Amino acid sequence: MKILVVDDELVSREKMQAIMGSFGECEAVEKGVEAVETFRRTLEGSEPFDLITLDIIMPDLDGMEALIIIRQIEDEKKIPNTERVKIFMVTSHSKKDTILSCVQAGCDDFITKPFNREIITQKLINNGVKIEGSTSPEQLDTKQDRTIEKNGQFIDKMIEKFNRGEIDLPSLPQIHLKFKELADKGATLQNIAELLRKDAAISSKLISISNSAYYRGVSENKTLESAIARLGIKTTKQTVNAIANRSMYTTGNEKYTKLVEDLWQHSLSCAYASQIVAQKAQVRLTEDAFTLGLLHDIGKLILIQVVGEAEKRTQASDEVQVKEMFSALDPYHGKTGGLLLKKWGFSEKYISVSLYHDALEKADNITRELEVVHFANLLVKSMGFGQSEPLDIALHNVESAGLLNLDSAKIDEIKPEIQEQIDSVKQLLE
Q1: In a domain, 20, yes or no
Q2: Model pLDDT for residues 261-319, shown as the tens digit of each residue
Q3: Domain closes at, from 138, 169, 188
Q4: CATH code for position 47
Q5: 46: exposed, middle or buried (C-beta count within 10 Å: 0-12, 13-18, 19+)?
Q6: How many CB atoms lie within 10 A of CB 367?
């Protein structure tokens, strides 16, 4: 069987490719246009595709449009229905009108995210696809298949324990709580300096950041008071939050060290991006954009830490690949983050950002805060922060860009500001 996987999201694409690769020869592309071109080329050759999985939401040519074009090509070639490529639409939601439209356009079935090996196998069987050497998921025993299923089951159990309160969630760093308490009471510069002076590491970093290229003034700051005065209380609070949260980005399992470091880089860049995006879009938020961006992926960090520690205790095999675990984590991190932020006493807007920053279409109420972080999250991914490779996406076409009235020109203005900010402070926050 020859299979084409089409998805613009790297993690989802690699997970689908890993599963489909055990059923036959599997190729993957990230754009709808590429999918159509690849389908046309192979159709004109000697080895056309037997199956295509099409993500519905893609930036250049979405799944629905690609589906229609592929069926039109088959009509032009007068290919009989029995010989047409099977097309499964992949979606993160199940809206009836979307499903009906895709069925009317000629899709064969749907795969809803998050998916796993068992779900895919059953879809293939239901659609008459013969799986060589096996008729059920239990009989498919390649090492890769077992690993994917094991990861999914393992994380499902972790989530159940979270919900039952059997896993202790971490506490918010105390300096964050004390600073917030002072700020809420209308603290003066002197009050804040007195609090921060108790932590030599934070004091030193604040002074260094106030003297960085981004904030530097005429003279060099040498005291904590002068550093706070230059940064301002709001920026000082944001910076303290970043320094305090940085200490949480550790793992006792060396296998996940790079994953955690990449996650920190992504979270920090998303914090600065959220702040700059809110300013450029001229939207007024009731919550702090920087902190929203800093905490949006906190659930992913907690899951990585829990899974890493559990693997050590159970002496799990080193054959479990980081990318596969990352794929298995992805569908659950929003809920985990929401649970943690609720425990920490953050508002519903923070919790909503954690839950829906990767899935705007699932939110019942799209707040300005969610719009900003959703866009900032994609923006920094497109710039390569915390990514193995930059996300190739037409940012001006994403829904949150439209809601914020951000066109290509404004987006091009934002990118260098984010880069300058990160280049200036990144090393100082390590």
Answers
A1: yes
A2: 999 999 999 999 999 999 999 999 999 899 999 999 998 888 887 776 666 655 444 43
A3: 138
A4: 3.40.50.2300
A5: exposed
A6: 17
